[in-house]
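note to self — DONT lose this again. spent like an hour looking for the file last time. sequence + predicted structure for the chain T wanted, 142 res
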Amino acid sequence: MFTCPAARFLWNFTREALGPTWLAHDLGEFLETQAHQPGKGRRLFWLVFAAMSWSLWNIRNKMVIEKILPRRASDSIFRFLAYLQLWYPLCRQQDKTRLDATLRQLLEAARRLPPSPARLPFYVLSVVLGRYVLWPQHLMCI
């Protein structure tokens, strides 16, 4: 679906964590299928998709503009999770229960990633080691 290795890695991680509803042969098919979901499912999909896209865009800008390459493929995952947590307060109240479940699934999948031997930022270590707290009513790495 994607040609960039970081995008493929993030996409595969998300698809494995969230299940077969995130499966598609190409981006167009995926967006069309997901865009026609009813109500709350559609809003959650667009939030997750926006967080994925924004994290990849920021990584791309770091590489192109600042000439800073990601040290690990998992950087895209943890940036994606950070954006989802950061945007949690912006969600509608009725969507927060679903987003909590989605964040738990993603964090559980992130905990299963092998830790990198390189020094990791603290928020990344928190997710890899499985230390997170509820703050306010959502998962936040400590």
